[in-house]
Amino acid sequence: MSEEIKHEKCAIIGSGPAGYTAAIYAARASMNPVVFTGKDPGGQLIQTTDVDNFPGYPEGVIGPDMMEDFRKQAERFGTRVEYELIGKVDFTKQPFQLWTEGGRAITADTVIIATGATAKWLGIEGEQRLMNKGVSACAVCDGFFFRGMEVVVVGGGDTAVEEATYLAKLCPKVHLLVRRDELRASKAMQARLKAAENIEIHWNTEAQEVLGAEEVEAVRVINNKTKEESVIKAQGFFVAIGHKPNTDLFKGILDMDETGYLITEPDSTHTNIEGVFAAGDVQDKKYRQAVTAAGTGCMAALDAEMYLAEKEAE
What we know:
CATH architecture of the largest domain: 3-Layer(bba) Sandwich
Number of strands: 19
Order of helices and strands: EHEEEHEEEEEEHEHEHEEEEEEEH
CATH superfamily of the largest domain: FAD/NAD(P)-binding domain
Number of domains: 2
CATH class of the largest domain: Alpha Beta
Low-confidence stretches: none
CATH topology of the largest domain: FAD/NAD(P)-binding domain
Structural class: alpha/beta
Helix content: 10-25%
C-alpha cells in the first residue's frame, strides 16, 4: 500500500534566521508550518562563533546557540521540524508538491523558500582550518573583532571594495589582494576605495596560504605576473569573492537574476508563482545579515497568511 501523502498549509524550505522566523509567525497564525532543515540545520550561523550584532543578545551569542533558540521558539508555537532535504518540487499546480531526497512526498498550499546562500572560498591551505579564528567571509559581521589589527581582503568587485572600506574604519591597515591589474568594482566604489588612505592594493596578487597555528598570523601571496612570493603579516583574512545562492533546486521554475538569486516582487516576498515566497539570503545579495534575513522571514509568513486568507475568501 502506498504511503499517504501528508498535506501542509505551509512548508518552509530552510532553517536559518529567515526560515525559523517565518515558522514562528506562520505557527502563531495557525498555519501549522513544517520546516525542512536541509543539510545544514540552522544555516550559515551554525558555522559562526561569536554573534554580537543580533538584537536581544546584549552579551553576544554563539551562532549555534542562537539558532537553537530560534528552533525552540518556532517549536513552542507548534512548528514541526523535519531534518530532511527537499530534492524536488512541482509548482505547476495547486496544491504544490515537494519530495524529500528520501522520496517522501508532501503537498502544500504555500511554500516559503529560505535556503540561503553559501560563501565562495578560495580553497587554499589554512582557509578552512582557521575559519572563525581570523578567517571570515563577512566584514560587517566580524570586523568589530579586528579593531586595531592589520587585515587582508581578497577580491576585486563591489563586495571586496565594500568590505575593505568598512574594515578601513576599524583597522590601521587593510591589504586588498586583486588578482588582476584592475578592479571590477563600480566607479563609485572605486572612488570610496581611493579615499581611504590606509588601504593598500596589491595588484596581480593571489593568496596562496593562510598562515598561523591557532589563529591567523599572516598570508602567503604570489604575484601572478612576476611569480614573486611574499608574506603579509595580518590577523584577519576576509574572502570577498561572492556568494552562491542555494537555488539549484528551483532553476527553470522560479525567476532568478543572472547570479541565481530569486527575484521577489517589490516590497514583498512574492516570487513569480502565486503561493511561493522567498526570504533571507536566497533573495538578498545586498545586506546578507541574520537580522535582515529574519525580517524577510517575518514578511514571507505574513504574505503567505494573507495569500491563504484571500484564497479562502474566493
